[in-house]
Each structure stands twice: as structure tokens, then as C-alpha cells.
């Protein structure tokens, strides 16, 4: 019996997700043959490659040419024209550097731990993803998100998007590179883990292709999103005709084992727990079972995953000390829904044994506890056990701001190797915290921040604006809390409230003054449109969130560090610099502005155009279009032939006279300004001295703008 487990794109590619290794370990402990594939990280490695990026050249050029040849550009076309130009002009430079950028992120050497080098490598990869996005607009893909606007959250939308090669970046990749390889082993069962909304379309795209290629193979979906969308799966019978055979709900170990055994033994599926499936009479849902006792679960098994492909210099392995949330009362949270509102803690000795095994097997000291919220009592036991066994590890975790996090406990947590704690503040208003049912006060939050920071642990706070009923003054109270306690808050991130499936607010909207716009809810919607009868609106909350990050975040040294290295790499940096710079306050952003020599070019200077600078002739004036986009003008533009210079590294753009092209072609790093003027003088039978003056004026302006260097 062969089982293939797949983690599909799109999810962050910095470390493995824990879902597959947990199910794999459980099935293997019951002598089931399992292969696991992280197609997410494999897909990122593919699209962030020179070969793939250059394969987009023709389509980008064709689309730009089509726009450039128009008699006018509408307001909606002008941004697309600008973005297409940047993607097309940047392509060669980014493609040439993308492989090196990936290697920097995977290297244990000095480059990764040089924040300036790391920052530039990240910029190249982000530019590469921007190019991929432009090739599939309006779809956009980043490291943390995937948006497919053409998908309307309906079954018909799934059918369309999974066949839409123009806007679905995964369809061509799966057809050309993935499916033919997956079907070689002819698995009996294929499990696809859907833990994020951003994985929905790729999962259905892959399953449709696999179902066609392997009609006798049983395809099953599982994961948190499947549990959230259980009602939608049940009511869309055609899903089970075109895309999958069954779906597992809640924790997956026991139902997956039962499903595999029933398929192996050719038994009816009605006895498999937590299952949605279709038989000859229609879609069925089986009874729910209790999860496997957490202490009976084996250590997660990462064998078969391409650990060297993750964008990290060493494996950072996820681990759970508990499943579910012990609090479960926060009105805005849906995370515990996937665990069936269950909470269970793993024995501390077993957790430490998991760490020991994984550390030895995969040669890593880096762990990320991905518990919804590890309890103070459990982290105390865990810290003591780690210290007593002498394990030398570094880790991070989510934890609630509980009063039990005393100064003494925080010191023990730090001694055991915890370098970073993620803390949910949410609001600086006690009334809003009470409405949220957070179970904390601002006084408790203040004390926890002080204790965690005082122990030398980096605390990262999550903040929310726009909780139903929040006033503008209460939002300001949150901002004031951040500023008043700046000395004990390492960093923070803001977001705005969004109404989603599985929340208490979604189940009891009237209690919170929320009106759900039901006519705008489709079967596969995760987030809902809504209106409020009081408090700040969604739009106001979004603006507050953005403004706080821009205006308040820049006042926090820790937020500046995160701009450089991101929170994904923060634990690695904290470990690397724990002796020399434990708070990372000596890390500075490298100056990424163009090199501007103190002195101007002289006749004996040797100019050279930056290797990242391209010269383009366009039918429209991009400088004018950019100006219009910046001021919000919404009228058409007419052709205005221009010659543009664009530097793909600095993103600088400038307009030059047509005659300048001949001069720039002579700036090859081997000729002086005087020699260039001499060549032009002979070509046009003109005084060399006069030409030299004009050349110097042009080139010095381009040196000033950052398009040219000289020696």
C-alpha cells in the first residue's frame, strides 16, 4: 500500500510545515509505506530560478509591445504598462542574480549573517516574484501570500481557475514538471494538506490533474482549511467527481490510518471517522472520533523532505508541545477550530525526547514551537527539562500574556534557549480586551513585556485595529501603549480585524454589532464581508494599521531590524549574535543608494554604465505616467515617444535624449571621456572640445542620478 502525501503551494518557504511530518510519522509507525513531498518549496525553487524567469521573457515582451503600440492608454492600463516595463527591463538582471541570492539565504557562511548582503539577496528574490506576478496578472505571489482575484470562491470558480493557464501560475508548472513525476510510483492514496486559503487553487489544480492521470488512486484532502470549509465540501457533490474522493476533518492521524487500511482491505468507508466522501447515493459524513492521545504520537518524521531547499542556512524544525488552545475564548480567533476545540498537552519528557532525536538526526539546534499558545506551566516544565538534560538548542514560540510569566520564569525560559516569544497584545484598551475576551489587562501586558525583555528574550507583539465596537480613541490607546512601553517592546506588527469562518464573532455576530453581508458569501469564502453598527470601519482600521507600521514602527529599533532580516530569520540572527550583539542593536541597514562619487567626471575619467541599467525606447513617457499615478489622475495618455534609462537594482528611472544612446554605448569602462568625445568628433566632423563639454554635462547628470559610475 503506497501513500503519497503532498504539501502544495503557496506557503512560506523558509521551513517545513509540521502537518506532513506528523501524519507521515504516524502512518510509518503502523508500517504504511509513505512518501512525502513539499511541492511548495519545490515550486518556489523552480520559479526562483534563472531558467524559469527567462522562460517568461517572450510573454512579458509580447504584452508590453501590445500596450506600447496602442493609440492611447486608459487610466487602468497605465499602471499595468509601468509594471510590465519594470518586469521586462529587470528580467535579465534579476535572472542572472536569482540563483546566487538563493544560495546566500541557504548559506551558513558570513554572507547570510551580513544584514546588508541578506537584504540585497531578499530584494532580488522579491523582484523575481514580482516578475512572476506580472506575467500572471492580476494574480500576485509573494513569500507570504497568493492572491488570485479571478477566483470568486465558488465551485464554478474552482473549475475555471484550475484550467486558467494565464492567471494560475501553478497549472503550467504542474503539467510540465510535477505530475508526470508524481504518477511514476502509482500511489494507492494521495493526501493533499490544505492548511491555508492560499493553497486552495493549487490543491484543486493538482488534484484535478492527478485524478485524470490516476483514476484508480484515492485522493483525499485534509488540513485546517478543509475543516473550516467542511459544509462547502458537503454541499458541492461535483467536487468528488472532478477533484477528490474524500476529505478528512480535524486532527488527521487516526482517520488517515483508518482510510488507508479501509482502502487496502477494500472495505466501505462509512466506518472511517472524521470523513466526508461520496458513494453511489451521494455525499456522506461519518462520525467524529477523539484524536489520538498526544503522548501516543511518534516524533515527527521529516525524512523525504528536501531540507536543503528551504530558504534557511540550517533546518529550523517546527514542533508542538501541545495541540489546540487552552484558552479558546478569544472572539476573533478561528485557529482552534481545526483542532475541534480540543486541547491536549504532550508530556514534557516526550517533547524533550522529540527535540533530542530531531536535533541529532537532522543536525540542527533550531526549533520553532508552533503551538497555538503554550501555557506558562508547560513552558516552565519544558525549560527546566531542557536545562536539566543539557540540551543546547535555540527556539521560539507563541505564548499568551499571562501574569504567571514572572521575571524568574522568564529567566528560566531564556536560559533554556528560547530566544523569541510571540505575544498577542491585540489592544491597548482594557475595554476592547474585555470585549475580545482576551483574559488579560493592559497592566498584565505591561508586566509581561518588562519581564520577557528583562530576561533578554526578544518579544514580538501582535496588534489589531478595528475589532467591532473599537473607537478611534481606543485605537489611539493602543498606539500610546506601544510608545509608552517602547523600552520593553522589541518589535511589533499590526493588522486589522477581518471576519472569518470559525470565529465566535462569526457564530454570534449580533452580540458584537456585526452584520454579515450574506449575499456576498460564496461557498469557499474564508473571510466574510460585513458592516458594523458602531466603532471604526474596516477601511479606517486598515489605514490605522498601515500608518502605525509606517509612523510608529520606524521609531522601534527592532522593527528596523525586521525590515532588514524579517522575523523568519530573527531567531537565527539572535542565536548567531547572542555573545557579541544579543539585542541586535548594532545591525544597520546597508546603504542601498547608488554610489555617488564626491567629484564629478573629468575629461580623463573612464565612465561605465551600471550593469543593472537598461536603455529602452517606449511609445509613452513613463516619467509622466508615474507622475500621474502618484497624483491619482484618471485620464487617458497619448503616445509620447521617449528614451528611458532604468536601473533594475536601484529602481531608478530617467528620461534621456535620443542622441544620448550613442554616447552611452561608448561608455564601456575602457574609454575616457576625452576618447569618447574624439570618436564622436570624427563621426560628426565637429570640434572635440565642444563635444567633450556636452558629453560631460550629460554623463555627470547620469552619475548624479546613479545610472553611471566612473574610475
TrEMBL record:
- Residue ranges of domain Radical SAM core in the record: 311-531
Gene Ontology molecular function: any one: metal ion binding
Q: Does the keyword Iron apply?
A: yes
Pfam families xrefs: B12-binding (PF02310), PqqD (PF05402), Radical_SAM (PF04055)
Any one cellular-component term (Gene Ontology): cytosol
Q: Which cofactor does it need?
A: [4Fe-4S] cluster
- Give the residue spans that cross the bilayer: none
> Keywords in UniProt for this one?
Iron, Iron-sulfur, Metal-binding, Methyltransferase, S-adenosyl-L-methionine, Transferase
Q: Which SUPFAM superfamilies match?
A: Cobalamin (vitamin B12)-binding domain, Radical SAM enzymes
PROSITE patterns this protein is in?
Answer: B12_BINDING, RADICAL_SAM
Describe the location of the B12-binding domain by residue ranges: 129-270
Q: Return the PANTHER family for the record.
A: ANAEROBIC MAGNESIUM-PROTOPORPHYRIN IX MONOMETHYL ESTER CYCLASE-RELATED (PTHR43409), BLL1977 PROTEIN (PTHR43409:SF7)
**UniProt protein name:** Radical SAM protein
Amino acid at each position: 500500500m503506497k501513500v503519497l502525501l503532498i504539501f502544495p503551494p503557496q506557503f512560506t518557504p523558509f521551513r517545513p510545515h509540521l502537518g506532513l511530518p506528523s501524519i507521515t510519522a504516524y502512518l510509518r509507525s503502523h508500517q504504511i509505506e509513505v512518501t512525502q513531498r513539499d511541492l511548495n518549496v519545490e515550486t518556489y525553487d523552480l520559479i526562483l530560478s534563472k531558467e524559469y524567469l527567462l522562460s517568461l521573457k517572450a510573454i512579458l515582451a509580447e504584452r508590453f509591445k501590445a500596450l506600447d503600440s496602442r493609440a492611447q492608454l486608459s487610466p487602468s492600463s497605465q499602471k499595468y504598462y509601468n509594471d510590465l516595463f519594470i518586469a521586462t527591463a529587470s528580467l535579465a538582471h534579476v535572472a542572472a542574480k536569482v540563483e546566487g541570492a538563493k544560495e546566500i539565504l541557504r548559506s551558513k557562511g558570513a554572507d547570510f549573517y551580513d544584514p546588508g548582503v541578506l537584504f540585497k539577496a531578499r530584494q532580488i528574490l522579491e523582484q523575481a516574484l514580482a516578475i512572476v506576478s506580472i506575467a500572471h496578472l492580476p494574480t500576485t505571489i509573494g513569500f507570504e501570500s497568493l492572491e488570485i482575484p479571478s477566483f470568486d470562491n465558488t465551485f464554478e470558480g474552482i473549475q475555471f481557475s484550475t484550467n486558467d493557464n494565464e492567471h494560475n501560475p501553478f497549472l503550467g508548472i504542474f503539467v510540465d514538471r510535477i505530475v508526470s513525476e508524481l504518477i511514476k510510483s502509482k500511489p494507492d492514496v494521495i493526501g493533499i494538506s490544505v492548511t491555508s486559503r492560499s493553497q486552495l487553487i493549487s490543491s484543486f489544480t493538482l488534484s484535478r490533474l492527478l485524478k485524470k492521470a490516476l483514476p484508480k488512486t484515492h485522493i483525499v484532502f485534509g488540513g485546517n482549511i478543509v475543516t473550516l470549509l467542511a459544509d462547502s465540501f458537503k454541499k458541492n457533490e461535483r467536487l468528488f467527481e472532478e477533484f477528490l474522493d474524500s476529505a478528512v476533518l480535524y486532527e488527521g492521524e487516526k482517520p488517515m490510518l483508518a482510510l488507508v487500511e479501509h482502502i487496502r482491505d477494500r472495505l466501505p468507508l462509512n466506518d472511517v471517522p472524521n470523513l466526508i466522501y461520496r458513494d453511489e447515493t451521494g455525499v456522506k459524513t461519518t462520525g467524529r472520533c477523539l484524536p489520538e492521545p498526544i503522548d501516543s504520537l511518534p516524533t515527527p518524521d521529516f525524512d523525504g523532505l528536501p531540507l536543503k531547499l528551504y530558504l534557511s542556512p540550517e533546518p529550523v524544525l517546527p514542533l508542538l508541545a501541545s495541540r489546540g488552545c487552552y484558552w479558546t475564548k478569544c472572539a476573533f480567533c478561528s485557529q482552534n477550530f481545526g483542532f475541534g476545540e480540543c486541547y491536549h498537552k504532550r508530556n514534557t519528557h516526550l517533547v524533550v525526547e522529540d527535540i533530542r532525536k530531531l536535533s541529532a538526526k537532522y543536525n540542527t539546534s533550531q526549533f520553532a514551537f508552533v503551538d497555538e499558545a503554550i501555557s506558562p506551566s508547560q513552558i516552565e516544565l519544558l525549560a527546566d527539562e531542557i536545562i536539566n538534560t543539557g540540551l543546547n538548542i535555540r527556539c521560539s514560540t507563541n505564548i499568551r500574556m499571562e501574569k504567571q510569566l514572572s521575571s524568574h520564569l522568564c529567566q528560566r525560559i531564556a536560559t533554556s534557549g528560547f530566544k523569541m516569544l510571540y505575544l498577542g497584545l491585540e489592544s491597548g484598551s482594557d475595554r476592547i480586551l474585555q470585549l475580545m475576551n482576551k483574559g488579560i489587562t493592559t497592566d498584565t501586558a505591561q508586566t509581561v513585556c518588562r519581564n520577557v525583555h528583562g530576561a533578554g528574550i526578544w518579544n514580538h507583539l501582535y496588534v489589531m485595529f478595528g475589532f467591532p465596537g473599537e473607537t478611534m480613541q481606543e485605537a489611539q490607546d493602543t498606539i500610546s501603549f506601544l510608545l509608552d512601553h517602547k523600552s520593553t517592546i522589541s518589535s511589533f506588527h499590526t493588522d486589522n480585524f477581518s471576519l472569518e469562518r470559525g470565529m465566535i464573532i462569526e457564530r454570534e455576530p449580533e452580540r458584537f454589532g456585526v452584520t454579515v453581508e450574506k449575499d456576498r458569501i460564496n461557498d469557499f469564502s474564508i473571510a466574510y464581508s460585513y458592516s458594523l453598527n458602531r466603532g471604526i470601519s474596516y477601511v479606517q482600521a486598515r489605514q490605522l494599521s498601515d500608518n502605525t507600521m509606517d509612523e510608529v514602527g520606524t521609531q522601534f529599533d527592532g522593527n528596523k531590524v525586521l525590515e532588514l532580516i524579517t522575523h523568519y530569520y530573527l531567531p537565527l540572527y539572535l542565536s548567531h549574535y547572542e555573545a557579541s550583539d544579543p539585542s541586535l542593536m548594532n545591525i544597520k541597514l546597508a546603504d542601498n543608494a547608488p554610489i555617488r562619487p564626491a567629484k564629478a567626471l573629468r575629461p580623463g575619467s573612464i565612465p561605465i554604465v551600471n550593469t543593472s541599467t537598461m536603455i529602452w525606447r517606449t511609445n509613452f513617457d513613463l516619467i509622466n505616467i508615474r507622475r500621474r499615478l502618484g497624483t491619482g489622475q484618471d485620464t487617458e495618455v497619448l503616445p509620447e515617444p521617449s528614451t528611458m534609462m532604468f536601473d533594475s537594482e536601484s529602481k531608478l528611472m530617467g528620461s534621456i535624449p535620443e542622441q544620448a544612446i550613442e554616447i552611452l554605448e561608448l561608455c564601456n569602462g575602457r574609454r575616457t571621456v576625452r576618447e569618447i568625445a574624439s570618436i564622436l568628433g570624427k563621426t560628426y566632423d565637429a570640434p572635440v572640445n565642444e563635444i567633450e563639454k556636452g558629453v560631460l554635462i550629460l554623463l555627470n547628470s547620469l552619475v548624479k542620478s546613479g545610472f553611471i559610475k566612473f574610475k
